[in-house]
Sequence to fold (315 residues):
Amino acid sequence: MSSDRAPVIATWLVDRFCGDSAIAGDLIEQYLEGRSTLWYWKQSLIAIGACSVSRVWEHKWLAIRAIATGWLFSLIVIRMGMRQIVHPWWDAVAPPALYPLVASFAWLVNGWLVGRLHRPYSTAMVGVYAVWLIARNVSPLYASAMDALAGVEGSAFGFELWSRAESVLVMVCGGVLCAYCDQLLRARRSRLSGETIGHHVSMAES
Amino acid sequence: MAKEHLGNLELMVLLALLRVRRGAYGVPISKEIEEQTGREVAIGSVYAALERLERKGLVSSVLGEPSRERGGRAKRYFKITGKGMDEVREAQRVLTNMWRNLGLQGESA
Fold:
């Protein structure tokens, strides 16, 4: 099924992850020619995957640096700073139930930082860091699942799964937010510099 | 300088660019590949190949004007460079040499 407006979320994601609005433009053009919503989503996901893999492959050292940056931040700020200093202090001065929000904010900053330090490939580098985080979470989650299946007292697989998945998701949101702000900033700069692209089309069509 | 290696999709994209000639952007390029190969090709994969080719200096691109039919997004027009033409000719020469004397003409798989 298709309508007269291309799926907004898919378009937004393609713009953020691919960094070239022409790709989303091509997809919209084909969608308005009668392609289905399913086709649009499939093409968008392929485009996001292809763009991210291509960028990571071309910038392997940057990808390693992104993982190292994210990991160092999570180790120093989240694991040591948040858990050992902020958490006990928070429990003393504020409702403990709100602490997960503070922890989520730290993951948001983690994603933002990885994106910010790896421009203009923010989303691809945040993506590679997310993949690394997911891979790191497999082993503890597996152990937790085994404990739950064996009926070990105190095992909390559901909570483990939720908290780890949530931290990765929030981290990715931080990275995407960074890329979005960066794109807005670049668009504003290009408008301010009075850059015109109109002459390019005549060059291409001549 | 080390020789560039062209992947299968990269070569197809370069040939599609030559076939489309003027006004070649993502949609006509992917349609041309689909018509010639009979297989659907994702626009994202075509752009990834074009990006690699541009980095190798085999194609160049310019942005057109944004249009309403494309949600206010511009088309990116691609053109093959002189170095790209050399690569296409070299790929043709190599592939022709590889096929020669194999006696596969008319054989069915």
In short: Helices of chain B lie at 8-20, 26-37, 43-55, 82-99.
